[in-house]
UniProtKB/TrEMBL annotation:
Residues 5-121 form the Response regulatory domain. GO terms for biological process: phosphorelay signal transduction system; regulation of DNA-templated transcription. Keywords: DNA-binding, Phosphoprotein, Transcription, Transcription regulation. This is Response regulator transcription factor. InterPro entries: CheY-like_superfamily (IPR011006), NreC/VraR/RcsB-like_REC (IPR058245), Sig_transdc_resp-reg_C-effctor (IPR016032), Sig_transdc_resp-reg_receiver (IPR001789), Tscrpt_reg_LuxR_C (IPR000792). Residues 149-214 form the HTH luxR-type domain. It holds the Pfam family Response_reg.
């Protein structure tokens, strides 16, 4: 059986190195160089081609959700398992909505982490059984109520909707600025304003809400 290539993304060096050393003793796992930030993570995904990405949600001042968002867009075959000290159903649902197939807290042992990695590589996954029902309920409720998203989008200004459309189109801040003839700082301000109006915290959440409300990538 082909070994599973695993990329650990975590800015806690001691924890990440200890986990890498422990998982490296598993005969079917190949542990790639550790990434401590979003930029390094995306570069290693592109060059090392991991099968499974073990992702912390807190990367210093950055968010692991940004890694999740961009990996889903550029390398949808990569399976993402969240391994984090962050707790709470809201962020768990957010991660699953963004494409994560597994969720583990850092208190779990390495044997469990290895099992979930293997499951993810085989197109499986893992959500703690005690919260799985509530996670599924929330996801179903969101899918059943697209009008709620449409009502929220109606609160945006025309320019904010243009910025959001660019985000749905997969454009970064500089590309949005170029398309709309704005400065990068102005785009950042519009992005912050629309996230505040939608009561969201990341571009991934905004894109998910927009697409659930019927917004689709444009063909320009």
């Amino acid at each position: 059986m082909e070994p599973i290539r695993v990329l650990i993304v975590d800015d806690h060096a001691l924890f990440a190195e200890a986990l890498a050393a422990r998982l490296g003793r598993e005969p079917d796992l190949v542990i790639l160089p550790i990434a401590a930030d979003v930029r390094r993570a995306l570069a290693l995904v592109a060059t090392e081609r991991p099968r499974v990405l073990v992702l912390d949600l807190t990367l210093g001042a950055e968010s692991g959700l940004d890694v999740l968002e961009q990996v889903r867009e550029t390398h949808p075959d990569v399976r993402v398992v969240v391994l984090t000290a962050t707790s709470g159903l809201d962020v768990l649902v957010q991660a699953v909505r963004g494409g994560a197939v597994g969720w583990l807290e850092k208190t779990e042992g390495a044997d469990m982490v290895a099992r979930v990695i293997r499951s993810a590589a085989r197109k499986g996954g893992w959500i703690p059984p005690d919260v799985l029902g509530e996670v599924l309920r929330r996801l179903r409720t969101e899918e059943a109520a697209p009008d709620a998203g449409a009502q929220l989008l109606a609160e945006l200004t025309p320019r904010e909707r243009e910025v959001l459309q660019c985000m749905v189109d997969g454009l970064g801040r500089a590309e949005i600025a170029d398309r709309l003839g704005l400065s990068a700082n102005t785009v950042r301000t519009h992005t912050q304003n629309l996230l505040a109006k939608l009561d969201l915290h990341s571009a991934l959440e905004a894109i998910t809400l927009a697409m659930r409300a019927g917004m689709r990538p444009s063909h320009r």
